[in-house]
Amino acid sequence: MRQSILFTKTRREAPKDEEAKNAQLLIRGGYIHKEMAGVYAYLPLGLRVIEKIKNIVREEMNTVGGQELIMTALQRKELWEKTDRWDDKKVDVWFKSQLKNGGDVGFGWSHEEPITEMMKLYISSYRDLPVCVYQFQTKLRNELRAKSGIMRGREFLMKDMYSYSPDEASHQKIYEATTAAYLRVFKRVGLGDLTFLTFASGGAFTRFSHEFQTLSEAGEDTIYLHHGKKIAINKEVLSDDVLGQLGVGREDLEEVKAIEVGNIFSFGAVKSEQLNLLYKNESGAAKPVILGSYGIGITRLMGTLVEVFADSQGIAWPESIAPFRAHLLVFGEAASRADVLYSDLQAQGIEVLYDDRKEASPGEKMADSDLIGIPWRLVVSDRTGDKIEVKERNQKEAALMSKEEVFRLLSATANHV
């Protein structure tokens, strides 16, 4: 992609009404556009990052037997009334409207109800179970506070998966497999060492739910971390009873701030009983299906990556989800050599953003490169001769390399990712 024709431009300053670092940098870098508080458009650079994250999540959900679909955003009032989650006093994040021909509708903030209702058409026997389905869906939640950029939006992209099992033993196998898959997701996006399985409140259905919390001072949650067991406990459930169940002492815990990037939750048979999702077991008896719910906030994860890895110069993307692997800059009268290198990189299958802008100074190009945060910067100039100046985004020193050395370097890092 030639930067001279890339839609959107970098900005020196963030909007004055934007408080969150992730949104400030993403707006300045040309990744997102702010429509209103908690509502952002994702521009070509931002969409490339989202698609990289989605593909990693998709691969891992497929490994646990998930099948992808997409549900509707409009939700029927009558369905949610069956589970007592339509009333604003019970669920306070609804956006609602009315149909012109009469009747109320809601805009989906979650999808347990409609997917469970749909499953009544496809599950009738134990032979139909277990089944897992997932989607990447834009959710709409009327958040009171929307001051954390894309980490707490009123409109956001989420991966939500739902498992339907004949019994608790079958459900636990899926639950544990999904837990492992989530940990692989966070490792693959670069957050493995910073993300911890966290015990949290299970609400009315189970004693615990499990969150995946990434350490960050920008986090809204307080968790208590046990480094040895690589687990954590959310402050909301911290008690002597819980500590006893988990076999840890208060003296072994560290209080830290964290961002919730995923959660998994057991509903048991409650939703199935409310919505009458039953199957016949091998004896012919009707039994309720066991439901599990598994969420990862895709855009929240994107914002978390910015919060965690950005420095004073700008964004610094992990290679696995960066919009491009390399950022090629040309200075002076070296355009013809840079053009050839750009074509050769593309022929090698290396994703590259080529800053071919004639009006931008070398200083502007270097500053924009740091702000945009692509993992490798390649500079071709009058000074480099037949060599290429190569610098990793988070390193201070650059090295001169031949074209062949650059190909080997970038191919090696691609294989590592």
Concise summary:
By secondary structure, the chain is an alpha+beta fold. About 30% of the residues lie in helices and about 30% in strands. The strands form five sheets. A five-stranded mixed β-barrel has the order 9-10-13-11-12. The chain has a five-stranded mixed beta sheet with strand order 18-17-19-20-21, with helices on both faces. A three-stranded antiparallel beta sheet has the order 4-6-5.
Identify the notable features of this structure and list them briefly.
Rossmann fold, 11 helices, alpha+beta, 417 residues, BirA Bifunctional Protein, domain 2, 5-stranded mixed sheet
Beta strands, count: 21
CATH level 3 topology of the largest domain: BirA Bifunctional Protein, domain 2
The pLDDT mean sits at 96
Could you state the CATH homologous superfamily of the largest domain?
Bira Bifunctional Protein, Domain 2
CATH architecture of the largest domain: 2-Layer Sandwich
Give helix % range. 25-40%
Q: Kindly give the count of domains.
A: 2
Shape: elongated
Q: For the terminal residues, how far apart are their CA atoms? A: 21 Å
Query: What is the spatial order of strands in the main beta sheet?
Result: 9-10-13-11-12
Structure description:
- The chain is α+β, with helices and mostly antiparallel strands and 417 residues long.
- It has two domains: 273 residues, Bira Bifunctional Protein, Domain 2 (BirA Bifunctional Protein, domain 2, 2-Layer Sandwich); 93 residues, Anticodon-binding domain (Rossmann fold), CATH 3.40.50.
- The chain is elongated, with a radius of gyration of 24 Å.
- The strands form five sheets. A five-stranded mixed β-barrel has the order 9-10-13-11-12. A five-stranded mixed beta sheet has the order 18-17-19-20-21, with helices on both faces. A three-stranded antiparallel beta sheet has the order 4-6-5.
- The two termini are 21 Å apart.
- The model has no long low-confidence stretch (mean pLDDT 96).
